[in-house]
Automatic annotation (TrEMBL), chain A:
Pfam families: CENP-M. Keywords: Centromere, Chromosome, Cytoplasm, Kinetochore, Nucleus. InterPro entries: Centromere_Cenp-M, P-loop_NTPase. This is Centromere protein M. The keyword Cytoplasm applies. It is found in: Chromosome, Centromere, Kinetochore; Cytoplasm; Nucleus. Component of the CENPA-NAC (nucleosome-associated) complex, a complex that plays a central role in assembly of kinetochore proteins, mitotic progression and chromosome segregation. The CENPA-NAC complex recruits the CENPA-CAD (nucleosome distal) complex and may be involved in incorporation of newly synthesized CENPA into centromeres. Component of the CENPA-NAC complex, at least composed of CENPA, CENPC, CENPH, CENPM, CENPN, CENPT and CENPU. The CENPA-NAC complex interacts with the CENPA-CAD complex, composed of CENPI, CENPK, CENPL, CENPO, CENPP, CENPQ, CENPR and CENPS. The gene is CENPM. It comes from Panthera pardus (Leopard). Transmembrane segments: none annotated. It comes from the Eukaryota. GO terms for cellular component: cytoplasm; kinetochore; nucleus.
UniProtKB/TrEMBL annotation, chain B:
It comes from Panthera tigris altaica (Siberian tiger). InterPro entries: CENP-H, CENP-H_C. It is found in: Chromosome, Centromere, Kinetochore; Nucleus. Keywords: Centromere, Chromosome, Coiled coil, Kinetochore, Nucleus. It comes from the Eukaryota. PANTHER family: CENTROMERE PROTEIN H (PTHR48122:SF1). One of its GO terms (molecular function) is kinetochore binding. This is Centromere protein H. Residues 45-100 form a coiled coil. GO terms for biological process: chromosome segregation; kinetochore assembly; mitotic spindle organization. Transmembrane segments: none annotated.
Length: 180, 246
């Protein structure tokens, strides 16, 4: 299967799976480690992938949240993410997908403009996070945020659904593209 | 392309509240286990309910037919925004209804409570009286601040009017000055003035010539003009340089 669908498998009991897609292997690995260190009542599974489509030979559980990591220092990572976006089903973008832009701290090294990523996130109606994954403190905070988001997307928090969270996260972001 | 984009191994972290079906790590926590099991079961129940709700809602959503025609980007964007606004409206309506429901429940409970206990001595009555006092204070200060704002607004209006009046007056003064300057310039350049000036020049020259003629006449007659005072006056007057009169 070349297209990822959000609800085609049964959810594992007490399990939440996140898929991190990005070209920066070291950063993704560090982020995965910090996420696993987080104190969470459910079991976490972190999958890392350079790009989609994923090989269908591996037996993997239902993916609850996909985070596309774009490094603002390299145009290749942006292109990679854009390519991978085509292999994701549209129903994922109802709250189960998010974008993460790293490397915004060093303005001189940025070859991808901030607005490009903002427009991309706006087109897909998904939340966009800016986080410098190379700094320890920010990475830990981001890991915490992702863990909470993952719990909600996996349905482990009663009363809040992924779509609900999406509309909660939306209000502060839709202003930005109109200001540009 | 022999190397497909690889997927790295998944890692997992065990449950902190006691793994269900996994061998226990700590052997000496048997008493705490029933507690943990119960909470775990309750949590799993809540989770499963939530997940079931999600699947049901997806099922309901997929029963609606999506329009298959190719729409333009702008139309799709507009439609998406409409749908998002719908979601927001439904959410706010739900929140308002929940708030109203809570308020009704609260007031019903308050009523029951008041019927049971002596209303004069309860802390509740004190609280409510305090609340009423504070509300009165709030209303009074709001009224005061409103009045002050009105006064401020009036003062500002007056200032604006004065500014506008002074602006128009200054404008008038400026136009008047400009008109005067223009008039002066016109006057200086008019032909009438020029001809008058020329006439004046010729008259002066003629008079100067006549003066010189008379001077030479008197000198040539070798008469003694210093003796007679009237004669002296006439001679001195002839000396006056007429070009200096201008």
């Amino acid at each position: 299967m070349s297209v990822l669908r959000p609800l085609d498998k049964q959810p594992g009991l007490n399990t939440a799976t996140i898929l991190l897609v990005g070209t920066e292997d070291a950063l993704l690995q560090q982020l995965a480690d910090s996420m696993l260190k987080e104190d969470c009542a459910s079991e976490l599974r972190v999958h890392l992938a350079r790009s989609l489509p994923l090989p269908s030979s591996v037996d993997r559980p239902r993916i609850d949240l996909i985070v596309f990591v774009v490094n603002l220092h390299s145009k290749y990572s942006l292109r990679n993410v854009e390519e991978s976006l085509r292999h994701v089903d549209a129903t994922f973008f109802l709250g189960k997908a998010a974008f993460l832009a790293t490397g915004a701290g060093r303005e001189s090294h940025c070859s991808v403009h901030r607005n490009t990523v903002v427009k991309l996130a706006h087109t897909y109606r998904s939340p966009l996070f800016f986080c410098d994954l190379e700094m320890e403190g920010f990475q830990a905070t981001m890991a915490q945020r992702l863990v909470r988001m993952l719990q909600i997307c996996a349905g482990h928090v009663p009363g809040v659904s992924a779509l609900n969270l999406l509309s909660l996260l939306r209000s502060s972001e839709t202003l930005a593209p109109e200001d540009l | 392309m022999e190397m497909q984009p690889g997927e790295h191994a998944a890692t997992e972290s065990p449950d902190s509240g006691g793994g269900e079906g996994r061998p226990p790590q700590v052997a000496g926590a048997q008493e705490a286990r029933p507690e943990d099991r119960l909470t775990l079961l309750l949590r799993l129940r809540a989770q499963t309910k939530q997940q079931l709700l999600e699947y049901k809602s997806m099922l309901d959503a997929s029963e609606e037919k999506t329009p298959e025609q190719i729409m333009q980007d702008k139309q799709i964007e507009a439609k998406i925004e409409d749908l998002e606004n719908e979601i927001e409206e439904v959410k706010t309506a739900f929140e308002i209804k929940r708030l109203a429901l809570h308020r009704m429940q609260l007031s019903a409970a308050l009523k029951k409570n008041l019927e049971k206990i002596n209303p004069q001595t309860s802390v509740l009555m004190d609280n409510m009286k305090h609340i009423l006092k504070l509300n009165k204070l709030i209303m009074k200060s709001q009224q005061e601040s409103w009045d002050l704002e009105e006064k401020l607004l009036d003062v500002r209006k007056k200032r604006l009017q004065l500014k506008q009046a002074s602006e128009s007056k200054l404008l008038e003064i400026q136009t008047e000055k400009n008109k005067q300057k223009d008039d002066l310039a016109i006057m200086e350049n008019s032909d009438k003035i020029k001809t008058v000036q020329q006439n004046l020049q010729t008259e002066i020259q003629v008079t100067t010539v006549i003066q010189h003629v008379f001077q030479n006449l008197i000198l040539g007659s070798k008469a003694n003009w210093a003796e007679d005072s009237a004669f002296k006056e006439i001679v001195l007057q002839l000396e006056k340089n007429l070009t200096m009169i201008k």
